[in-house]
Automatic annotation (TrEMBL):
This is FtsX-like permease family protein. Keywords: Membrane, Transmembrane, Transmembrane helix. Signal peptide: none annotated. The keyword DNA damage does not apply. It comes from the Bacteria. The chain crosses the membrane at residues 29-51, 71-96, 116-142, 162-187, 208-225, 231-262, 283-307, 327-349, 383-407, 413-433.
């Protein structure tokens, strides 16, 4: 039996198992497709929005601020690129997490590395392809809604937001490649050491040198605002770099928070949650990294509201300032939706990868409600730390641009708080999406 025949056989058996048992494969398959569909639809909307501003900037009646709109559109796209890639990777890892034990057994009974690689690549590529097709449909459905949001005094038309067949194909292919590559990277522990799947070995401790990335990015931001290098586009790029450093320092913070929570745990659910955070701080960060990125963006969106409604400006400048504020909140809304879906997908993958642990704890007498509370705390404890980290970094990178007195403005603080609450609420909703999985894996026969 070659690798393709084996893949087809495994998929058929998985579908049969999902129909006749409590196997959570059907839930995880749905979450994976939803994640890839969301990445595709939102990525196409972002690309279409940038193309629309580019199109308007080159029209005969373009305003004097048209190029500035384009610059802001690219900045928003750069800010959203990180959560989009993160969610695509999380969806691919969920595919591997669902099959890692079965793949490890195949490896132990003689399957070659090439066969295991082909099986995983086909799994991930198939899920990404189905999700991509659904995402293209979602993109067409979202175009009329995005067109209702006015920029430059009018909404976008379908033709302005349409990316064209070439870009559509490129984005679709990119999503499939992202899913396949992420799955193959996540497969390394099965291919290199199949026994490691059963042993559940802890990941090595993370180094404090990750904080150096934040320091370097902050220095770059100061240089961008205080020297002759200063330009709004360069400042925006440095802000996007600062956003990227969250993914470096975040896992290190998760490790510290997990150790702190474990040392003060007084209940079983808190102890279980904190130990899981310590065992895999990178996954703990991935489960809440979206809300941290949304919080970071919320800081910028809140500051942008200060530019709307300025007196003594021309009507064109007032419209530009209002549109910048609108664009900031649109970027935040997209980031919040991405955070919610990413959390749901990552949590599902985490439960699936720990299914043996859930089942043994349940057989040892731990109730499903306790296991569920532990899973919720696996999200809420890192989420509080992630929001705090993002708040600190957001303030750090905004101060060089707007000064320390910025956060003494009540309007900024109120809108910042509401924006963060919006993102946190969406993430909590995403956490509930994988609630059924705990019961399914704990009682799986």
């Amino acid at each position: 039996m070659n690798a393709i025949q084996l893949w087809w056989f495994m998929n058929r058996r998985t579908r049969e198992a999902a129909r006749h048992s409590k196997d959570p494969a059907s839930i995880t398959s749905l979450l994976t497709v939803v994640a890839f569909a969301s990445v595709t639809a939102l990525l196409l909307i972002v690309v279409g929005g940038i193309a629309a501003f580019e199109f308007r900037a080159h029209q005969p009646g373009a305003t004097s601020n048209s190029q500035s709109y384009v610059a802001f559109a690219y900045i928003a796209g750069a800010l959203l690129l990180v959560p989009l890639l993160t969610m695509g990777g999380a969806a691919a890892r969920l595919v591997v997490a669902r099959r890692d034990e079965r793949l490890a057994r195949l490896r132990l009974v003689g399957a070659t590395t090439a066969q295991i690689t082909v099986l995983s690549a086909l799994d991930a590529a198939t899920s990404a392809f189905i999700g991509m097709l659904c995402g293209v449909g979602g993109y067409f459905a979202l175009i009329p809604a995005i067109g209702l949001i006015p920029f430059e005094g009018r909404g976008f038309t379908f033709s302005e937001l349409w990316v064209g067949p070439a870009l559509l194909a490129a984005v679709g292919l990119g999503v499939i490649v992202l899913g396949t590559v992420s799955a193959l990277v996540g497969l390394q522990r099965v291919v290199v050491s199949p026994l490691g799947v059963a042993q559940r070995q802890s990941t090595p401790a993370l180094k404090a040198i990750r904080i150096l990335a934040v320091v370097l990015a902050f220095v770059g931001m100061v240089l961008a605002t205080k020297t002759s290098l200063a330009s709004f586009l360069f400042i925006g790029i440095m802000f996007a770099v600062g956003l990227g450093t969250l993914n470096l320092v975040g896992p290190f913070v998760m490790g510290i928070v997990g150790q702190f929570a474990a040392s003060r745990a007084k209940t079983l659910d808190v102890l279980l949650a904190s130990r899981r955070i310590i065992d895999d701080p990178k996954t703990a960060w991935r489960s809440v990294g979206g809300v941290a990125l949304a919080t970071f963006i919320a800081g910028l969106a809140s500051v942008m509201t200060l530019f709307s409604g300025y007196e003594g400006r021309t009507p064109e400048d007032v419209m530009f300032a209002t549109d910048i504020s609108t664009g900031g909140y649109l970027t935040l809304a997209i980031a919040g939706v991405l955070a919610a879906i990413s959390t749901g997908v990552t949590q599902a993958g985490r439960v699936i990868s720990q299914r043996e642990q859930y089942r043994f704890l349940h057989l040892a007498g731990t109730g499903v409600p306790t296991l569920e509370r532990a899973r919720i705390k696996e999200t809420t404890i890192p989420m509080i730390a992630a929001v705090g980290t993002a708040l600190a970094l957001s303030a750090l990178f905004l101060v060089p641009m707007f000064g320390a007195g910025l956060f003494q403005n009540p309007l900024v603080l109120v809108r910042f708080a509401v924006s963060v609450a919006f993102a946190v609420g969406l993430v909590l909703v995403g956490t509930l999406a994988s609630r059924r999985l705990v019961t399914a894996v704990a009682r799986l026969d």
